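PT: before anyone asks, these are the final sequences, not the draft ones from last week. 596 residues across everything. Please model them as a single complex and drop the result in this thread when it's through.
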Amino acid sequence: MTSSLPDTPAPVLLLVPGAAGAPSDGTAPFHLADPTAPQLKVTDLVVTRGDGIFETVGVFDGTPVNVGPHLDRLARSAFLLELPAPHRETLVAAIDAAIEAHTDVAELSVRIMYTRGLEGAGAPTCWIHARTADDWTAYRSGIRVVTLDRGLSTTVPETSPWLLPGAKTLSYAVNMAAGREAKRRGAADCLFVATDGYVLEGPTSTLLVRQGDTFTTTPVSAGVLPGTCVNTLFADLQRAGHQVREHLMTVADVAGSDGAWLLSSTRLAAPISQLDDTDLPVDLELTKRFEALLTGKA
Amino acid sequence: MTSSLPDTPAPVLLLVPGAAGAPSDGTAPFHLADPTAPQLKVTDLVVTRGDGIFETVGVFDGTPVNVGPHLDRLARSAFLLELPAPHRETLVAAIDAAIEAHTDVAELSVRIMYTRGLEGAGAPTCWIHARTADDWTAYRSGIRVVTLDRGLSTTVPETSPWLLPGAKTLSYAVNMAAGREAKRRGAADCLFVATDGYVLEGPTSTLLVRQGDTFTTTPVSAGVLPGTCVNTLFADLQRAGHQVREHLMTVADVAGSDGAWLLSSTRLAAPISQLDDTDLPVDLELTKRFEALLTGKA
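LR: through. Structure below.
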């Protein structure tokens, strides 16, 4: 872990009691706290039930990228989990304050965590944790990815919303187990596949696929998270005259494509160099363009 | 919440640094802690990823029930999540110490929580939280239950173990969402149904069904938790000359049965009086017998 190196700047922790609106007792909506001290009670529902949501914002040379889309998605996750709506202005200010309080570093990872709160209290717990990002340089030059069954159909959002498809929850044990399975298979990451044969997303990333002049991602209606990165790239690709779309794709579509990437706010655009046992073309120039866009430098 | 009533005894919190074996620094394997103070760091993987497992032991008039089977299941969950094996003797002693430290009450709920620990640390976090149980008396006299799609097939344990079927994880956001959906439909609880049409379990309970002289529960191989309560009841039913079995059942099987229950260590045996729109016979005498067995009084 980068954060355990002695020369890594200390992380910053901001507690945000005003995350769902002004605290009733008149205290400040957020304040710095000691990240090395325990801050959470054992009866917080995020601890007892994984009952919460989150976002991770990438900050590059001090500039946070896609804060608006991340907060849009946090609000959407809150809606899907029937949590109180997050107070947007408070979170924007708190994210800025966390970045301001952190030592300047090239890449900062800012997690916004929002839980159902203490059992019986009925008010969310929220904090922001800013820390030096791990080094993903190798990941960004090409990765082997394996496909793994997600067990669910792409029709689940329509039929069974209580399965919380498309919500970025803190119940990520399956996502973590899938990551371990990928590593066991000698891959850096995995791509989830629905039971009806369509590719979905990575456990912590969005899929982007190139077929000739067309760039495609999985439709949100299939139960994936609305990607923040993919929208940034789509806007730029459209300006450059490419076609962009949300469309269901099979594993064969991806394996036979002209390039594919897993996108994330901190790992950025990771080209898939091999999907299961099929080599895929890697366009490092286009990947560099994506990286510039996703770090706010293009 | 019972715990917020002023005359409810204070909960007891025991931190268990020796949960995976003796702590390397020679400290005691467990110690009492202040349950009203924050005890967890924001970088514990149970908080950032829901990456942990748990058990809830019911304690009736001071006697914990099924501690062995609960610890067996905790060990199984740890294996499925690739967590270090819990140290059984330490946990047995810690459970006893938590019960001992709590004011005598008729029904105590003892949660054993076991997480992947702090990011980068590689050692589990464990604590035991003992508190007066909520009042489930009404629940135990008959409940309306609705069936809800679980989105997964009963073949998932065979094909896709990374989906963690049968592990009692702290990633329970879907279980909680299903509970809310059940309440929205005017039911007290729900029964999950697999995509291949077989009934599974409740979000926090095991299914038991009576058909004549035969009592049936869902096979563990279908992806449900191995129930601790159902084994207690099976042993007694067998002694009384009934047939008991693990067997796949459809919704129609349950709706047409001679009685069905949702079993849990704290709610005990809740007879299903209505499944979706079908009334089911409720045998209160047998339910009382189950209650006596599950509280260690038979």
